[in-house]
Amino acid sequence: MNAMSTPLGTRTAVVVGSGPNGLTAAVRLARSGVRVRVVELAERIGGGTRTSELTEPGLLHDDCAAFHPTGVVSPAFLDLRLKEFGLRWQWPEVQLAHPLDDGTAGVLYRDIDRTAADLGVDGDAWKRLMGPVVRRFPGVVEGVLGPVLRVPRHPVAMGVFGLRAALPATVLARTFKTQQAKALFGGIAAHSFDRLDRPLTSAVGVMLGAAGHVGGWPVAHGGSRAITDALAEALRSYGGTIETGVRVKRLRDIPADVRVMTLSTRAAIDVIGDALPDGVRRAYRRFRYGPGAHKVEFAIRGDVPWTNDECRRAGTLHIGGRLDEVAAAEAQINRGVLPERPFVLVGQQYLADPSRSAGGLNPLWSYAHVPSGPGDEQAATERLIAQIERFAPGFRDRIVSMHVRGTTAMEAYNPNYIGGDIGVGANTARQVIVRPRLTPHPYATGVPGVYLCSSAASPAAGVHGMGGYFAAAEALRYLVNAT
């Protein structure tokens, strides 16, 4: 495409941040003919999707995001045709497993019928919960992964989803009789980092559970960096450029017709400065950040010796025991208390993507939900390992080396992760609906031509690029009206 041949060919845009949202915005703008420049503070692109050798040479570890149930079904990624730019998804045999102390587990397969059969007496209840959402998933995903305060294009689909999503996860889990089904659903809902007895915590459980039956919980071949590598390749194909190691302190540092920023609300206040309207400034200041993630990467010899066989084939595992235990741990971190038994996520990406392993060793990804801000990293690491050992006796003996990144280091890795909050904002009921402020245009900052599209804006966290996709659409409308 010759950018100068389009009505927008003389228009310019600067995108601050090279994570999935920033690059998605950049690609959509560049594809429309806008001359796009992406600037990134770090020396490497990717934001939450970087992949590094953190333990042993050749072992590939995802620095943050690891499995991608929303990425594989993202309307943005599908529209931008990332497969043509090198992105390749890979699936484990078992999408997700949640082990229990008796050696059983709640297990999620891509096949909803197989999942239901494995859940036994709760199989029909699982299908009643997830089936209607799965059948209407295109309408659901379009509605959920976008601004909430708008008229839905698929009201029936959103109505079906909303009836389930509105309830606290602990209430909706009463649908089930067995500990396996309760734990499976509760563990998925715990991705909200919120107390599971609060309204709308079922939204995450239903959305990610249904996504698992539609697109699975895949990994990106070669590491999560492959997602932003594909976006970067797409951007370059449309004439866009990327610069790393660039710090943006004020809007004047990035002159352009439109500016799109993947910043936290706190950083946005500083960068936009006095130009930010008072009402928007107050809303950004009121925006709350959530608990943190304590991340530990392991190099292990062989596989994790899970007691449950299905766990040995699972790409993702939720470690926390029964639903009541998970709910108690999530309540503690929201009170600022490090649980004795924190909720832990474990990724065995190498099962689907053997290219991540090397030298007879496998990389194991994990993080524990912990309180926000500085904490006892040694205790958090030990409790994380103890949780894995609880369901995989002998795990400690498989560890060759570790790399620990606590909440403070998570924020240093990505300044958007305030206090270690990798979701860039608490998922309270209010902030699920109103993110980052009460407006049908959540990406608008109130400054003409300036937009915010980090995970602090709708539709919140997840590697799906939808915040950037919608922010770019608003920026394009602004440019067309200004032409």
From TrEMBL:
Matching entries from Pfam families are given as: NAD_binding_8 (PF13450)
The record, for PANTHER family, names:
DEHYDROGENASE-RELATED, PHYTOENE DEHYDROGENASE
Q: What name does UniProt use for this protein?
A: NAD(P)-binding protein
Name the species this protein comes from.
Epidermidibacterium keratini
